[in-house]
Write a structure and sequence with these properties.
By secondary structure, the protein is an alpha+beta fold. Helix content is about 25%, strand content about 30%.
Length: about 160
């Protein structure tokens, strides 16, 4: 009986050695290859950045004002002072407010050519920065309504 236990133990030990030893060799080879990859210096070039990928306006330097955004309705236009007043909902305070924006030569327009193309009650989105206490508009976009974007009616002759 003791001899059978010894044989079973010996056979089990040999079987484990046959299975485990090759696995240890493979693991050691894999570790050395992975280690080489980590120690080698990688020379990867950054992809070229096209001008189309660059932002229209450079990011502000630290300490410069960040661009903010608002969506509202035109209340008052003052072309003489290059300003527009917009009525909007301030979601931080959950209240309706008016905000005055000043335009300059850097202001761009979407769906308009200039400040004079805006009308009271136009829905606008404005990207702006606060500089010296003034809201300086960077981009003013007029939101098109369904009436503006609907096709022209066909003439009776068509």
């Amino acid at each position: 009986m003791k001899q059978n236990v010894f044989i079973v133990t010996f056979v089990s030990f040999v079987a484990l050695c046959i299975i485990i030893f090759p696995c240890l060799l493979v693991a050691e080879e894999t570790a050395s290859v992975v280690g080489e990859n980590f120690t080698e210096e990688a020379s990867v070039e950054a992809p070229a950045v096209s001008e189309a990928m660059m932002p229209e306006e450079p990011l502000p330097a630290p300490g410069e004002p960040q661009t903010q955004w608002i969506l509202g309705k035109v209340v008052l236009l003052d072309p003489a002072n290059n300003s527009v007043t917009v009525h909007y909902v301030d979601y931080d305070t959950n209240s309706e407010q008016d905000l005055v924006f000043v335009t300059d030569e850097k202001t761009t327009y979407e769906n308009a050519q200039s400040l004079v193309d805006l009308k009271p009650n136009d829905n606008v989105s404005i990207d702006y920065r606060i500089v010296d206490g003034k809201n300086i508009a960077r981009v003013i976009g007029i939101e098109k309504t369904e009436e503006d974007s609907s096709p022209l009616p066909l003439s009776p002759d068509d």
